[in-house]
Task: inverse folding
């Protein structure tokens, strides 16, 4: 049996307004194996006078790993100046994540959410550029689908970019909610393998509102919605996925409880259940 490892994404704790140090404590106390920080949390920590060396020690002392980091740099856009600045931002964020032990970073559709970009030969070259930088920096960018975005909407989008990129180190970052929101059939997961998929975001979604009206706040605990989680889990095992399942929701009702530890524990329990 394939063994999954469990992480919590910092976005899940966003509404509790916890500094990264407290997020780490919550993740450890709840029983997770790792935490996926956001770059803004690291920046705020540094602004308060912290050092990434100390933060890495805290993470390790808590028995946690950092499977990857979430960042928002405009690498994919058509505007050359914006893209150039975005790549410089990416390098800085890669350096931060590397310091705390991460080897992966999200490459999203930031800057192209509203405008569809689908010149896949060009997008493949742009991804190859940041992928080669990532290999030099020791932090590989993962193509992340955003089902609500005009760009990087579906599995077919990221597969096309990867195909034109033509590099063996291609990585994808997938999400239960985003697969559904963008209309990607889960059968497409069969085309993946453990080399291309290291982190999978886990959540669920309700039957109402309809798919095209779902937004981030509608994500719920795994098993509390209609997502075919057993089928997804089975497919991940079939392809030999042995990476990280990372709990990521942005549920306003969960945040309103004020109980970050309970939310984290519940998410872990429900991930393991499916």
Result:
């Amino acid at each position: 049996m394939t063994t999954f490892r469990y992480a919590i994404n910092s976005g899940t704790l966003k509404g509790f307004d916890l500094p990264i140090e407290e997020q780490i404590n919550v993740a450890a106390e709840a029983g997770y194996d790792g935490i996926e920080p956001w770059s803004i949390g690291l920046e705020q920590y540094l602004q308060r006078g912290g050092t990434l060396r100390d933060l890495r020690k805290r993470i390790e002392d808590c028995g946690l790993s950092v499977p990857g980091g979430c960042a928002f740099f405009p690498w994919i856009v058509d505007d050359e100046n914006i893209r150039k600045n975005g790549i410089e931002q990416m390098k800085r964020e890669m350096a931060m994540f590397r310091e705390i032990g991460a080897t992966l970073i999200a490459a999203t559709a930031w800057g192209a959410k509203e405008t569809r970009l689908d010149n896949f030969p060009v997008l493949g070259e742009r991804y190859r550029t940041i992928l080669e930088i990532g290999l030099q920096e020791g932090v590989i960018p993962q193509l992340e689908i955003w089902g609500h975005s005009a760009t990087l909407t579906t599995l077919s989008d990221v597969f096309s970019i990867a195909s034109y990129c033509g590099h063996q180190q291609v990585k994808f970052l997938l999400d239960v909610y985003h697969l559904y929101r963008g209309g990607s059939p889960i059968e497409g997961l069969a085309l993946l393998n453990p080399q291309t998929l290291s982190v999978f975001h886990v959540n669920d979604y309700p039957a109402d509102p309809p798919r095209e009206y779902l937004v981030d706040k509608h994500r719920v605990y795994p098993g509390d919605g209609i997502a075919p989680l057993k089928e997804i889990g089975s497919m991940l095992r079939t392809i030999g996925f042995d990476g990280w399942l990372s709990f990521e929701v942005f549920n306003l009702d969960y945040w309103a409880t004020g109980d970050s530890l309970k939310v984290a524990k519940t998410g872990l329990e429900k991930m393991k259940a499916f």
